[in-house]
Each structure stands twice: as C-alpha cells, then as structure tokens.
User: Fold this.
Amino acid sequence: MTEPSGTGRTGGTGGTGGTGAFATAAAAVHPPDAGAAAAARQHHDRLAKPPGSLGRLEALGAWLASIAGTPLPPAPAPAAVAVFAADHGVHAQRVTTWPQEVTAQMVATLLAGGATINVLARQMGASVTVVDVGVAAALAPTPGLLDRKVRFGTADLATGPAMTETEARAALDAGAEVAADLVAAGARCLVTGEMGIANTTAAAALVAALTGRPATEVTGRGTGIDELTLARKVAVVQRAVERTEPGAGPLAVLASLGGLEIAALAGFVVGGAAARVPVVVDGFIAGAGLLVASRLVPEALSYCLAGHRSTEPGASAVLHDLRLTPVLDLGLRLGEGTGACLALPVVEAAARVLAETATLEAAGVSGTQPNGPGRGA
Amino acid sequence: MTEPSGTGRTGGTGGTGGTGAFATAAAAVHPPDAGAAAAARQHHDRLAKPPGSLGRLEALGAWLASIAGTPLPPAPAPAAVAVFAADHGVHAQRVTTWPQEVTAQMVATLLAGGATINVLARQMGASVTVVDVGVAAALAPTPGLLDRKVRFGTADLATGPAMTETEARAALDAGAEVAADLVAAGARCLVTGEMGIANTTAAAALVAALTGRPATEVTGRGTGIDELTLARKVAVVQRAVERTEPGAGPLAVLASLGGLEIAALAGFVVGGAAARVPVVVDGFIAGAGLLVASRLVPEALSYCLAGHRSTEPGASAVLHDLRLTPVLDLGLRLGEGTGACLALPVVEAAARVLAETATLEAAGVSGTQPNGPGRGA
Assistant:
C-alpha cells in the first residue's frame, strides 16, 4: 500500500500538445496502488470460502482496491453515465439506413428518460448526463443536456479528415471536463455512453488504423445493415485508413477519422483515471474511444474495465488489442452505455464481498489452523 | 396470450409416487405462456433501438413474459434465496480436505449474515432462508433457519445408497414446500442456494449417472483438492455410478447417490415452476438438482434460468445436457447461490427494459414509417 510518489507520470499533455482539461487530466494520471491490490487479494484468502472460489469477483475487488488505494475499497457508487452525442459526415456515404436526424431524436428521448440507458441507469441508481459534442442540429437548452458542441457533425471521413486536430483537442477537453465535473459532483464510478448515427463507421476506421487490422475484420453490421451496405461500409473504412498518413500519431489519426463523441469518450476515460475512479467502458464505440485514450495516455487503461463484449467484430478487436476480458457477454450491440451499465452490479458486488464477508476466523470455520485445508488444499 | 387450459400437465406426482408437497407441485406445473413471449418479442421490435440490439436481454424479457403470462412482465423482485444445507456420508472417503463440521459452521455464518451469499443478497434486495435438510449435527433453533431435517447426513454413497427413496421424497417435499412458502410470502423470483461439505462428490455422481458421462468428465476439484484426492474422488464417483442399477428411474438414482440438499433443490425448482415464478439456478450442485428435477418434471425446466457457469466441469455437463446458456461466466465455484444472485440484476433489467423503454413512435424516431429502416435494415 505504498503510494508511488512523484513517479509514474505518464504523459504531460497526453501527446496532444494541448493545454486544456485533457492535458491537465493526462498529467494527473498515476499508476494505481499495487500494494492495495495485493492486500485485497490476501484479504480474500482469509474470507469464509475456499480461496479463489469467487473467480473474477476477486480480481475485480483487487482492481477496485488499487484504484481506491485501500484493501477494502468502498462500493463504487453512485455511478454516472455520460452519453456523448455527435453526428458523422460519413452518413452521406449511405453506410446506415437510419436517417441522420435520429441522433437528435434519440438525444431528446435520452433527455426525456425513455432510452434504454435511462431505464438501466434508473435500476442501477446511476445518473445520466447527455453531452452534445457534435450533433448536426441546434438543440434547445434542456435540463440534463450539456452543450459542448465542437461543430455540427464531422466532415465526411471518406473524402478527407473528419475534423481538425484543434477540434479533436476540444472534444478531448470536453470529455475530460465532464468526467472531472461528475466526480466533483459525487460520482464514484463513471460509465461511457454514446449516441451518433453512423458512428460504427468512424469507430471501425479508428480501430483499423490504430490496430493495423484490415477493414473487413473490424467493420460490422452496426444497427443491422444488409450485405450491399456492409460492402460499401467496408470500402469506405478501407479508403479512409489508406488516406490516413502512415506513422501518424494518435491525435492525428483521431482527427482524420473521427468522430467527435469518440474523441470525447477518450477524454472522459482519461478524466476518470485522473480523478482515480473506476471507468466502466461500454461496447464498440466506447472501445474505439478507449483505444485512442490508451494510445495517448497508456496508464489510463489501468482504471478501465470492459463492461461487456459487443457483437460488433471491431469491439472484440479492441478487447484483444488491449488484453481486456469483458465482464458480460450477452449479445448486445446497442451502445448508449447499456452493456457497461448492466455490469455495474458485478463491480459493486466485488467491493461489497471484500468489505462484508466474514473471515474464516470470525466464522469459526475449522481448518484455519496450520493443519487445516487453507490455500490449494 | 391464450393460456392453455387443461393441457400440458406434466406428470401428476412427478414420477415419485408420493402424495406430498412435491407431488402436488409436480401436478401444478404447466407450460408457460408462449403467446405472451411472442408478444414481448414483438414489443421489443417497436422500442426506440435497432431490432435485436439488446441480444440476450430481449430473450430474457420474452421468457419472463411467458412466465408472467403478460407481454410486459413485472420486475421479478423481490427475490428469495433458499440455502439448503446437508452433510454427506461420502466425506469418510477423504474426497475433500475440509472437515465435515464446516457445514454446520457455515450454516451459523449464513444465519449471522456473514457468508458471501448474504452479502450479495443484501445488495440485490433478496432474502436468504437457510433450510436444514440434513446437517449431521443438531442445530439450535435460530431466526432464519428452517428445520426440515430428513436425517443427520446421508450414508456413504461409496458403499451403498445415500438414502432411501422415502427420504429422497421427504427432501423433495421440503424443497417444494419452501418454494411455495416463499412465493406465498411475496417472493417473485427464486434463487437456488446450498451448503454441504463434500457435496461436489454427490453432484458428480448424479450428473454422471443421469447424463451417462464418465466420472472423469464430470468430477472436479471442488474447493481445490490436489491430484491424489481428485483421483480418489473420481474412483468413488465411478464406483457409485456402477453400483447404481442400470435403467433405474430418477428417484432411485437420486436416493442412491444423494444428497439431501440436492434432492431439496430439485423439489425447490419444481415448487417454483408450480408457483409460476422464475427460478434462477446457481452452479454445479444446483445444476445437479436441476437435472434431477428435469428428469422428474421436464416442464419445470421452462421456468429455470442458469445464472452462471461454474468452473466445475460437471456444471458445464449439466448446461450442455439441458441446453442452457448461463447469464454469467465469471469463474465462480463457491456455490451458496452466489453466481445466481449476481445474475439477478440482468434478469430484472430484462423486465424493466420491456416496460419502460420508449417506443420508436413515442420517441418520434424517423424511419418508423414504411420507407424507414425497420427490421433487418
């Protein structure tokens, strides 16, 4: 439980060259407390159950301990979901059958509490904040809506850069700011959410460019497109990746391929890590944001948990690249933060079990003496 | 949503020849409402999200609808966990390194609220009831403990029948009664739990006998035994299965191999199905109980959900045999009902999403008209 002091700074401005909220957050990301994690694992072996018998729950407990800096971490609650919304110029390439205005319509639904993520967040006792970082429509001020619009949708990534690096930095800043504000307001766990028609195309392009995988491997059917549309989408992704300069840094790749909500998600993840709270990451779009964050501020990954495995092939590519094992695998592909939100009770359970289960000694269980069963028995 | 009337009765006394609570429950198990399930699936396609994008959550919603007999099922809460506790004569064969008295010690820990299942049940708002169906010690009356002791532990299944068929019937009755009582007291979901040192040996023997798999395939390390102990355990399971008469009915197999808590779990499952509530089934021991229940009253399976995949190999054998896909796969092997309890929020979410998510029409989402995207778009 020795807190590293003065070591482990991981990037100053996170390689963005900026001076805003993201750069500040990037400079504040330190490695989590390995000593607290080890102490949590030792405590688990003293609890009234066979050692190791809680599997992933034990590992999650140690992870929470490393973030909280204490062997018995508090329950990571309440959680806060931030849903970053933006539009995509690549919609013009007919990569989806949903009209672009559905982004704004779903923002209204989110604000009215009627989207699936609202339902799940209510169940889990989590708040939902909607952040407009790039919806292609003027949105009326509404309670629960944060206006951090960088621009009215990205440019078409099929024909040129989705945005400028300055705009990418602004979206990163927005995400980092929202994370800091939510934690300042009492959140003890952050959940990534997003909404943006056509954003699986941008996410696929980013994942292809940052992992080096071919477009065919990381491009999926999104909301459920047919063969012809999928072929068009794959071609768009492939051309966009080819257009992106080889050897370009992660910020340049992010600006080239977009989207604004993915950039904001990357900032949000780094902001959560800077604030030392666990960040539960949703599926494919959030995974692309996490991939960007991990390239800009590698240590931020230590604060992140993959909430679930989306059925989108690019989501599994991200999990594989970042060596993450998701908590849930339930065939979801909705986004909004839904899969991550469903994982929250498991994360909370990991903390509660550590803090509340009786020890073998307190339970008076035989075999806690030298001749008893103990570990490996 | 047509409720079958007078059809689908599945077994009278469930093949036990008894006249008690189990026989009554077995006669009351009817097929769930397929019409309500279909209506739930149709409703999902009208919600403000791409059709099918919630994966397993949509299937679970339809399943809950079929049990509730209505397309928008109420949340299956509160849940009630019943922990059936018993001892095993086969402990004498040194198939585990834990002393037999740990069963009674863990019962005391359960009653004091210090076991892992207590922690998880508190988090999920579920009650915990401990049922002594065969602990090999006299237990003092305590609030929260039900005395349904059939005998002081089973006989050693390595050398002869674990119990008589009359005793097996008594344990089945105890389980069915507890299920009925919990539902009468307000439970809207049942969770299987158990505690019994050496019970993975009895479960392995039952699974081998009822699925026809070799002992080596279904016998695991339980609480964490070494190679030598595992070899002894496999040999014990193999001999016990060979001793059991070929072609014996499920009740005879149950009596031959035990254990009392497994018999009670089988009764509990059938009792839950009779009361038309969802039953969330835990890992290996509960899986063995479910296997017995499915052989006695096949339709009971329609009311059961596999909460998680235990790391015990015999658990996967049961899931495969019964064609069940568990909700969670988190490497647990504790029992007590812990894995099933962790799955409860997902089950509850399935009901909430159906009832609370806005429809495409209500959300004013474009593309709900004939020329819009719709299913498969």
